[in-house]
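=== RUN LOG ===
request id: a7f3
mode: sequence -> structure
chains: 1
length: 226
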Amino acid sequence: MDIELSYIEEGSGFPLVLLHGNDESNEYFSHQIPYFKEYFRVVAPDTRGHGKSPRGEAPFTISQFADDLREFLISKNIIKAHILGFSDGANIALVFALKYPDMVEKLILNGADLDPSGVKRSVQFPIEVGYRIAKRAAKSDPKAKRREEMLGLMVNDPNIAPESLAKLLMPTLVIVGTNDMIKDSHSRLIASKIPNSTFKVIKGDHFIANKNPEPFNEEVRSFLLG
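=== RESULT ===
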């Protein structure tokens, strides 16, 4: 890896890795880190080009972030972990589990999508417009270039075939909000294609882990320790 990822680590025991969403940082998990450190060695990296992690020169893609995660975990002597991803972090977790299944004990997907069509059109359309505007401005404006890359992750990534999810044999929790920006049918499709999956819905929007942490944490704890 051409960079070193910034990260938070607390607690001890079996590793639980937390992966934040687009244009966020590990600070998103302010309600999860103190809760889960009582049960696990919690490790929450900042994705490449997010939070305090440098951008580096490698491609800015979900697949690259999954490769970054593998190298990061190996550098921390973590050969297997529970992986919990939110939004783009869930997409990274999904791609990581498909590429490196032996490194995943249990998988939690909070607000994942297999491709941009899984996002409600009312949310996705403004993202696409913003991406086109940023792409035009990026040639002369470094800030627009960064915005183009961030929005590009939600316009061009991921591209996961539903049939490929049959390869995921680890226990998996698919968890979403009642008013999530991911289409309910899409979340249910993901759960239906993963052989050993559980599907849960928590009251709230896309950001249930941050806005409604008590039931979210309880569902995740029950899944991991049950």
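=== NOTES ===
The chain is about 40% helix and 15% strand.
The longest helix spans residues 121-137.
=== END ===
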